[in-house]
Amino acid sequence: MNLKRVLYAFSFVMLFASMVNAQENKSEREKYNFNYGWKLNVGAAEEAIKPEFDDQKWTAVNLPFAWNQAEAFKNDITHLSTGIAWYRKTFQLPKDSNDKKVFIEFEGVRQMGEVYLNGTFIGRHENGVMAFGFDLTPYVKPFPQENVIAVKTDNDWKYKEKVSGSGFQWNNNNFNANYGGLPKNVFLHVKSKVYQTLPLFSTLGTTGTYVYATDFNIADKKAVINVSSQVKNELSKAVNAKLKVTVVDMKGKEVASFLGDSFVINPNEKKDLKASKALDNLNFWSWGYGYLYTVSSEVLLGNKAVDKVNIQTGFRKTKFEKGMVYLNDRVIQMKGYAQRTSNEWPSVGMSVPAWMSDYSNSLMIKSNGNLVRWMHVTPWKQDVESCDRVGLIQAMPAGDAEKDVTGRQWEQRTELMRDAIIYNKNNPSILFYESGNESISEEHMKEMVEIRNTYDPYGGRAIGSREMLDSKVAEYGGEMLYINKSAKLPFWATEYSRDEGLRKYWDEFTPPYHKNGTGGTTHSNVNGSKVADASAYNRNQDTHAIENVERWYDYWEMRPGTGERVSSGGVNIIFSDSNTHYRGQENYRRSGEVDPMRIPKDNYYAHQVIWDGWVDTEKPQAHIVGHWNYEKEVTKDITVISTANEVELFVNKESLGKGIQSKRFLFTFKNVQFKPGTIKAVGYDKSGKQVCETEIRTAGKPYALKLTTIERPGGTLANANDLAIVQVEVVDDKGNRCPTALNMIDFEVKGQGTFVGGIAQGPDNYIGASSLPVEGGVNRIMVRSTETEGEIKIKATSDSLKGDAITVKTIKTDLGKLSVNLPNENLPSFTEKGPTPTTPSFKRTRLPIKIIEVKTNSNQEDAYKSYDDNELTEWSNGSGSAKIEYELTREANVNQVVLKLAGWRSKKYPIRILIDNKNVFEGVTPTSLGYVTLEFSPTKGKKVQIELIGDAKNSDVINLVEITGKVDEAGLKKGNTKVPQLPIVEVEFYEPIQ
């Protein structure tokens, strides 16, 4: 039986059991899903605060629901609708809630939310990012009376904080897509008067429960599990309280139960209660291994439990040193994506059910990515928890745009970081806290470190910022476009490979025949400046995949194991096409490895190949770029991406020989003539043994449509908010997808569901259209369930093709206004990659030789800067000769010189290298994202001389322009222009391993 079906069936059984159990034990429930039964009005409605206000004509919605979400991908980010919207809900408290505390928790509002209960103003939240909550106890009416909550929202791009008059730096219309209103989940908490607080600091002043592990012994699977929970006593008398902690594994088995010490808590006092115990036989959370435990902490007064909090978390060990990141005692090179925090989908924006967050985020893992860097605000809790489940490492920002700030805007950033750390400190997938999308001052970095140390001292997370290359305070760094190396801090690129391309564009030989570079020449930067030619960013799938491989090569070449100074990797911008700033003909960003419906592009498969493994590539793979369904007489270059040492190509079993290898992973076969049949790539290791192969077959003529679904594990919920993804393919008479098909498809949806739609190139990007084309033979739409259990019947037709139909069954769920079924309940973890391997992290590829002295007749005082492990300093010759000599610690068999030369992306330097006066290299340095490796025959010596032998030449091979319109000079400084300059940022010398 199919394992996935077994898991889905198990999830359904667990869901049904949890529903029954929750209904039977409703009186014990402390946290309720408050998403159901809201009314929405777009526009001013100040009278809505009054309980007696008639909202019958308002639109019924279930949260999460952004009032303008239908515009996602239809409108340019700068044209997303803004303004006032009201949300309103009538509800009763549970029967047994008298004399209890009642809190409401919003996972977020955009941009501002004012909350009213029964006509009384409760509070306001304005940062547009972080969760917040209020104590409703003084204002709520007891059962069976009805309560009316009203929320006024305002998502104006220029919204100003009421007290200070300051705007929010991150309310930014180039990256922070503006889905207004209540686009995230809402919960209601009913607690006793002695209770564990909520982690909602800015509005409640409380820090919640903190679960963390210490004293790790990874090999023996041991650690000490610690729980520290802030408990407040709102009784009129002092109480003697202690914590009881229970740890349950993913199979539902209790693995530990332990008590903390007793403490007296006075009336209205808050006190941290603690408990800890050493546990063994633990499963540690890891990359692609989202192993989570449920840690329950109960407050005991005597032997009676009066309050319980369940926290799903994982345990893992981290270390950040020697330029590397360690996870569970193993080095892991960062390979992943810089993804917009909105993580949006067509027509629904960010407000998707939790399982779709899992689906999207798990695709990053399946592409062999291990890190997502969210840009540039804290992700909502649903995505944070999703990354826990799928085993995806996160870099969590607070809020930023493009620069350091001062005054009230800096205070807003520190407050947001504080709140985000408190709210997310139990989520194991967060390994990095990002203090800025640009470098910040050392004083500001110290403030951020202090916030981390205060609220998350034991979480095993590095805090840093983009850049910060010479910071004495930051714990990691890395530039946006380039490669950095360090012997101390981990440096990973926060964004690289930012080119764009539609999934529709295979190449210039396939309809619609998109030649690389066409489109987008009217592009504007976010500051309004014009780019005369943005064609360098606009690609088809062929060249986009190749570009991604070429850009990654620089990071791979300087990976851990290649010396004392290494790169910790980098993140490609972006993972899925995004409704944000763009550089092409379409009104959205198309840099993704998947399109907005998460259909993979060739880039996706390229990463699967080159990112396989923790540091080194571990499993040989190959991917043929493109398809094999061309028109007659087409001749084109074929590219194979592979981790094999050699690749041979076969067309209809006829060998075309071995490919030309470049950038380690690219194998090019020139002028391959299309012949219907098969094209196969076979990879070989150094000994000539076959280690991998892949094949593409020519599909026949379009014959029929084929529908399949992607659904919530356990089944689609009948809650008027769950979505099912329906994939349509154009196939031949044997069921093979036709990769060049562009047929228009007509959809019809009946039964207990409504049509939502998908996306394609065309008018309004076909958003909301019930007829839209396939691209590359495939496309997807979404359908939404109703609140009635039943069937959704989807039918697809197309002229001259055999149609298809499919049915989605929806299952009953608790739709109560205080629902006992939480949005992420019973979603399975992704554990396919297994626990952290116990094998060595990497294999050393070369030996570094240290420098003990340097001599030059020009700027001798700066000569040490050429090897000081600080990429913000450099030596250049000034007015003297461009010659410098290094003395090594010992006589070595040098075969490589690694250089970072200022202007690395745009300058080519003619140089000569001598070892003990013997000429070993004479040539021109290539452009790169930072470092170049100059290789020659191993030569024994102790002194290495580097000399500039001509003028540097300009190159535009790597065309990089920031969204601000700034052209980065890559370390070039203004100086003497009359004398040829040799600006060395860093130099390293290596010998081969014997």
UniProtKB/TrEMBL annotation:
DUF4982 domain ranges (all copies): 636-692
Superkingdom assignment: Bacteria
Record-linked Pfam families: DUF4982 (PF16355), Glyco_hydro2_C5 (PF18565), Glyco_hydro_2 (PF00703), Glyco_hydro_2_N2 (PF22666)
Signal sequence, renumbered to the chain: 1-22
Keyword annotations from UniProtKB, A to Z: Glycosidase, Hydrolase, Signal
Ranges for domain Beta-mannosidase-like galactose-binding: 85-172
Keyword Phosphoprotein recorded: no
All copies of domain Glycoside hydrolase family, residue ranges: 718-806
Glycoside hydrolase family 2 immunoglobulin-like beta-sandwich domain residues: 215-316
Family: Belongs to the glycosyl hydrolase 2 family.
Protein name: Sugar-binding domain-containing protein
